[in-house]
Structure formats: C-alpha cells, structure tokens
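Hi V.,

You were right to ask for the full record rather than a summary. Here it is.
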Amino acid sequence: ELVDCLVTMTATGLRPRDIVTPASLRNALTVVIAMGGSTNVALHCVEIARAAGIDLWADVLSQAEFNALSRRLPVLVNMRPFGRYSMVDVEAVGGLPVIVRELLDAGLLDGDTRTCTGETLAEQVRRLQPPAPDGDVIHPVSRPFKTTGGLRLLGGNLAPEGGAILKVAGVEGGITDGVFTGRARVFNGEAALIAALEDRSDSFADHDMVVIRYEGPRGAPGMPEMLDPTSRITALCRQRDITIALMTDARFSGGSVGLVIGHVGPEAFLGGPIALIEDGDTIVVDLNTDRLDCRELDDPVVHDARTAAWASAVEAGGGVHPAATPVDGRLLRRMRATAQPALLGGGMRP
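Predicted structure:
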C-alpha cells in the first residue's frame, strides 16, 4: 500500500507540502486528542509543521485554541494506558478510519484536506466505508468513553510562555473541582528520583508534587522520556491509594499515566522558574484556568532572591549550574548548545 501511494504521488505530482497543511495538522491534532494520545504530539507536530514551513502555534492553532479544542472533544477509545484495550484491538474493530469517520460526521474534521492517495480525506473515508463504532473499544461521539479531550497546555508562573502539557485522560485522581495542590519534592535529574524511590519510597506522601529538572532539551541534553519514574510512581500510588503528581522539563512516554506534567519551560538549565522551586513549596495545578503555579514564587522578594542564588551558582560553575549533568563528546555538546525549547519542538537548530 505504501508503494502504491508513492506511485500515485509521483504520477500526480503530489508533494508532502500539499499534504502537510495547517488544515491537515489541525485534523491530526484533533484525532490525537480524541484518542487520548501522547503528550509527545506537542513536540512532533511542531517539528513536522516546521519542516513544511508552518508555525504550528501561529498558523494552525494557538495554545488557547488547543485547550478549547480539547475541552469540547470527547475521547472515543477505551485504550491503554487509561483504558482496557490496545491499538491492536482498535484495528480489529475497524481502526483509525472508524474514528476519522465519527469525527468527520460530527463536523470536527476538515474533509477537504488532501491525502497521500490523491483523494481528499472525505473521499478516502467514503471509499473505505469503515464500520460504525463497536461501542466498547471505539465509542461514538454521542456516547464517548470520556467526555473531555486527552490533552491540556498549562501556563502560570512556572510556565510563563505556556506549553507545559498534561494528559488529562490519564489522570487517575488527586484533582478536586479541577484543582490539585501539592508539596514540592525536588530532584535534580531522573537518577536522583529513581534512587529515592528505590531507597526511601516510604518518604513519599499523598499530594506530593515530584519535580524532576535539568532534563530538558538542553539540560539533559536531549529531553528524555520519564517512563521509568512515572511507572514507579503510578505503582506506588496504586499500592498505597494516594496521589503523587510529577512535573518536569523533560517529556513522557505515551504509556505514562497519572497527574504528570511535562515540557515545563523555560527549562531549568536556562534558569526557568522550575529551577527556583524548593522542597516544601506549594504547587497548584488548576485545570479551570489552565495554570501551573508555585505560590512562593508569587512573592517578588522570594523570586528575586532565588533567581540571584541560581545565577551565582551558574557563575561559580563556569556558566553551567552544578546540578546539570556534565556532557562529553561533540554531539552532546552540540545538542546542549543548539536544542530548541519544547514549544518549538525540542530539536536542534539547523
């Protein structure tokens, strides 16, 4: 089938930029949100758009529009990590065309976008004639698996440019009336948290907010996914029936669940607000206003004092904060010097 599509594209002169357009990117985001998809879409979609000469947040949709879309879109699939089934089961009951048809019929997708078959999206779906949702693995828009969409972008004093991302569909508890309030437990790097979870797991308590920092695009460098710590925290929460949230300037695997917030920026390596959090600070996640805040940093005296202390540590470290992982080798040094913020896709500048 792939070869057939390539032959069709070659014969008709259909180019990738004819397919990757603002409308098709919006369609893609819509489908991902309706499937409760990975937070990584906020990285990959930005980079795909950039390669096609498109600014995702300016030309496709703003962060506010992204959140508005997610609020009105239901989740249609009962699929792991927050549901029962897998993508294999989705495929067995008709696959992606079933979901696309549901969203098209509900007026949530642009059917005029061109696909790699040379047809429009609407033409392709009509030709395929996918079945109706089975109601168990794939749900109809009228009776969704979850009533709200899968993803949310957060701003606030810990993410002043926005872009911190939460998979709402994967949250298992801890939010009351749309708000989570937690106590900061700060770890400079993933390894420090893993060690604490292995050696002192009983030190973690209900409504802790774990902070993993210096793991962003430049800090790590390379913005690793936090599947290991999120998996361990999820297991601990289920075992003790508590909620431990997590926030990081790194990213997550699509398999991560829980109240986990990634892409927090500016990242700690660059002196973003996440670098200023201290143990015991009060962290508030408000899904009513889409904010991620540290109450202590609202005090300008505290904010300025912590900023000055961070800057002094960087100066003493020769331009790099001592908490950041040292890097060796030309590639890692290049990544640290050129990595883009998560909002711009997290890749290296050309």
